[in-house]
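Following up on my earlier message about magnesium ion. Here are the inputs again, as you asked, copied directly from the submission form:
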Amino acid sequence: MGRDMSISTNGQTSERKSLSELAPLEAALFDIDGTLCDSDPIHFHAFRELLLEVGYNNGVPITEDDFVEKISGKHNDDIGKTLFPDWDPDKAAKFLDDKETMFRSLVPQWLKAVSGLHKLCKWVKDRGLKRAAVTNAPRPNAELMISILGLTDFFHVLVVGSECERAKPFPDPYLRALKELNASPEHTVVFEDSVSGIKAGVAAGMPVVGLTTRNPEKLLMDAGASLLIKDYENPKLWAALEEIEKFLKRNEPFAQLN
Ligand SMILES: [Mg+2]
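Thanks, got it. Here's what our run produced:
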């Protein structure tokens, strides 16, 4: 596999990185919402209910298209400015805090791992790869979801967007993960499900596998995804991992951490 030259929506030619160029693979970075788990329906439910309570959109419930356009994958500061351009920032922050409280109350019952996630995590762990979760979610949400998915011991590092200078779609959270893991972007793969997240991973110099959990394929490809998969059972993903593994076995002993 070589580099795929693609035309972006603004007519510019851009280079899309190929997974096969990653060998020897050193690290795997995962977004959380929509990437490890299908949490958007829970976020959508919480936003829809609380926006109705405050009379947003003249009392008309937001649609899934509204959610994809204005909310999915974005940091709360940006969501607040988009939803409530005329509100006092403190009032918007309080609304978003209430939404996160409602989200966390629903997570234990509703959160489901993306199919094949634990198989991929085992593959990553068995090869001693470095691993981080990199999210725009608030830290309490991130820690709760990781815990419910049984991955608290899996991740070496958790990077939270609001604790960086700039959240996704800026590269800062991914650059911090690389730094904390002491990993090279040349040998690190990113898993993401949103336009904002894919842009952040690409801007940090890494190929991004895009999960089509909720967001439209075209938007994810235009954002620069190297490969789109519905879930971690996808044969193309496993074929790419096997290619990378052949290279590992031929050239490099597995680097075991700890
Ligand atoms: Mg996401």
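One observation from looking it over: The radius of gyration is 18 Å. Hope that helps, and feel free to reply on this thread.
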